[in-house]
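Reader question, answered in our methods column.
A reader sent in the components of a multi-part assembly and asked whether the whole thing could be modeled at once rather than chain by chain. We filled in our standard form and ran it. Here is what they sent:
COMPLEX SIZE: two components
ENTRIES:
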Amino acid sequence: MKKLINDPASVVADALRGIELAHGDRLRVDHEQRVIFRADAPRPGKVGLVSGGGSGHEPLHGGYVGFGMLDAACAGEVFTSPVPDQIMAATRGVDGGAGVLHIVKNYTGDVMNFEMAAELAEAEAGTRVLAVVTNDDVAVEDSLYTAGRRGVGGTVLLEKIAGAAAEEGRDLAACAALAGRVNDRVRSMGMALTSCTVPAAGVPTFDLGEDEMEVGIGIHGEPGRRRVPLAPADEVAAMLVEPILADLAAAQIPTDGPAIVLVNGMGGTPLLELYGVYAEVARILAAHGVRIARNLVGNYITSLEMAGCSVTVLAADEEMLRLWDAPVDTPGLRWGR
Amino acid sequence: MTPLPLERTAAWLRAFDAAVHEHAAELTDLDRAIGDADHGSNMDRGMTAVAALDPAAFTDAAAYLKKAGMTLVSTVGGASGPLYGTFFLRFAAALEQPAVDAGEQGADLAAVVGAALRAGVEGVVARGKAAPGDKTMLDALLPAVDAYDAAAGQGLDAALSAAAAAAADGRAATIPLVALKGRASYLGERSAGHQDPGATSAALLMAAAAATLGAAEAS
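And here is the structure of the entire assembly that came back:
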């Protein structure tokens, strides 16, 4: 393992110190509970948005804490969900009287820990909590027989749009309903060229030959559904976009509205390659009559230093587009102010 | 006061901690194959915190195990934290139930531990919503409880030994299974051929129980 760290055991704590030093103007960090708060939380009367998950996906989620997006993010150990204590601390810390929305990616551990925390926060502090569980990954085909689809790139888009809705003063039920609607209309698919190395494990999570790639990966270095021969960017783009469009069609979700598209790097792929993939993705979507209204290209939800990318397509509507364009001021996303 | 002696309970937790520590790399390797390579380090972190609890600070085994469960929930994370935490919390709660039929002391304790074991495993079922054959820790725990009950009439030691043997068999039986719960389920057919890391740590838990909870029975 070759990593720029002090000690595998202190990776998360060290990063949290850096995040606080780098963004102290808008964030504060509870180092004991490992929660990143918006500096001005709680905001009276505003629905609090809390997310979190294993570390190693930066800028998700801590990088999306700030005006117009999350109020707090819990940093678990690398690739390990946060514990209920952390989530409760975050939930209490952002409750401005209007309740708290938990944004949870559909992984067994994340779902269990957020559920336990929500039960405890409601029982002990009377905090109203609703949750949306993101599950946009179309690689998980037979979700009736698995833990269900994973939450991946769609989570970024959902946090932005729900964050804007909370910022303009919508109530908890409305924020949760909107978040659910975004989740219903967003799909993702990912691939990997290499494994990543979890610091505490010290060796790559899986081995991939020079001439191979994994298709249908999540964001935890877990192997994908299929291992196939390495292909050029245009073929990879098709492997990622076609299942997304097929799944949206199967769910009878119209794609004639304004699409928001994310071409996301897994942490180890340069922008040169991601833009090349974006060009192919845009070409394929155009051929299917999908109009890209907004896009993101870059590392937004990563898997340590894994090489590879994912594509996310949100079949948005005018309301989602307006909320997407609303001002946001976080370390990971910033525009409009 | 629960009938389960505090010192045997402490020995159980110490033995489980030692086993987790010894097998941490193996657990993580198993998790690397079908999960995300953190089961050993997560369980080691949690059990180190549990082992740091002072048994003398608790009034009885139930209070001690409750604290152990909360400690796991608060330190492990992932799915293992809530699942192992729930196991110990429910196990502890069952110990506080009114004592079972009076009788010979050894047989009595066997019934108490059996009821607690079943309550703990049922807690794991409720929390994780998994079923037998899903390739999870339950594939070691459910056969262990059944084997325990079948042997409970022969006393605590025999029942725990039977449970540990059944857990080990259950662990081995996860190898050909296709995972239907947890992160390994994302691999579909590719998860077959690998031993489940959760079933492996669960078998360590039962082996630790067999080595400690009944060991002092004769004394």
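What stands out: Chain B touches chain A through 33 residues (CB under 8 Å). The radius of gyration of chain B is 16 Å.
Send us your own complexes using the same form.
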